[in-house]
Design brief:
With about 250 residues, this protein is of the alpha/beta class. It has 9 helices and 10 strands. Helix content is about 35%, strand content about 25%. Helix 3 (about 95-105) crosses helix 4 (about 120-135), helix 3 packs parallel to helix 5 (about 150-165) and helix 4 (about 120-135) crosses helix 5. It binds adenosine-5'-triphosphate (ATP). The site of adenosine-5'-triphosphate has 11 residues, from strand 2 and helix 1. It comes from Seohaeicola nanhaiensis.
Length: about 250
């Protein structure tokens, strides 16, 4: 397998706190790799360094063999890395379809035509509808975004990530705030996407993580203490001790 993302010896401190401590991680092409860890373990700090909103003190971030450690966020997006969920990218005043068409338009580099509604371009509209079908929102295309539920907004964010055709999707707690049924639906949706994209998933919902991940890395005090398949992680004593409890 080929590494899409390779993180080598990453360090980031805030005052006396080592939020990222000699962190090593590899995401292979097409895998869904989940990173779990207790509150304050450094998951957000790690993902911020992967998408470029924070720059490490030392160490390297490689994307498809290229050193992107100090590359600006928008240039990483251009290379094919997208981050979803932590900061919403939805424009509530616009229709559901307009949001997706706009994301498709941005991908094509037509954002200078911002004043021309993206939905007036037939190809963007058709592809937008197809993406909405894919995330189960085909019947909501013409609804106002603001009128949709939280779970539906999360599905829209998946459609926007898909519109960007990103090779590496960084999914930052997609289940946060979802009810039981909505979480199950999100897991089913992500199952349909995985394999086609490389995905790094940060998630607190262990049922979702164990249902989805090809591999899991466990982050404790900024350091990955174990990486393995879900069954390897379940059986790892250090992990049970540090994180999963005695279950
Ligand atoms: N800008 C900052 N200034 C100071 N300390 C910070 C900053 N950002 C993070 N930290 C500290 O770094 C550590 C890691 O925080 P981080 O938010 O990355 O953890 P996390 O695993 O994402 O937590 P959670 O699961 O609660 O979201 C924590 O001790 C946190 O207080």
């Amino acid at each position: 397998m080929t590494a899409v993302l390779k993180v080598e010896g990453l360090n980031k401190s805030f005052g006396g706190i080592k939020a990222t401590d000699n962190l090593n991680l590899t995401v292979e092409a097409g895998e869904l790799h989940a990173v779990i860890g207790p509150n304050g373990a450094g998951k957000t700090t790690m993902i911020s360094q992967l998408c470029g909103t924070q720059i490490p003190d030392s160490g390297r971030v490689m994307f498809k063999g290229r050193d992107i450690t100090r590359l600006a966020t928008h240039r990483r997006a251009h290379l094919g890395i997208t981050r979803s969920f932590q900061i919403t990218s939805l424009i509530m005043e616009m229709s559901v379809l307009d949001n997706i068409a706009l994301a498709l338009q941005a991908r094509e580099g037509h954002s200078f035509r911002f004043l021309r509604p993206a939905r007036s371009v037939a190809s963007l509209r058709d592809r937008g509808r197809a993406l909405l079908e894919r995330v189960g929102l085909g019947d909501k295309a013409d609804h106002a975004t603001v009128a949709l539920s939280h779970g539906e907004h999360r599905r829209m964010e998946i459609a926007i990530a898909l519109a960007s055709e990103a090779e590496l999707m960084l999914l930052d707690e997609p289940m946060a705030g979802l009810g039981t049924q909505e979480s199950l639906e999100m897991v089913a949706l992500l199952k349909g996407i995985k394999g086609k994209h490389s995905i790094l998933l940060i998630e607190h919902d262990m049922d979702a993580v164990f249902a989805l991940a090809d591999r899991i890395s466990v982050l404790v005090y900024g350091h990955i203490i174990a990486t393995g398949t879900p069954s390897e992680i379940r059986g790892n004593e250090a992990v049970q001790h540090a994180y999963l409890g005695e279950e």
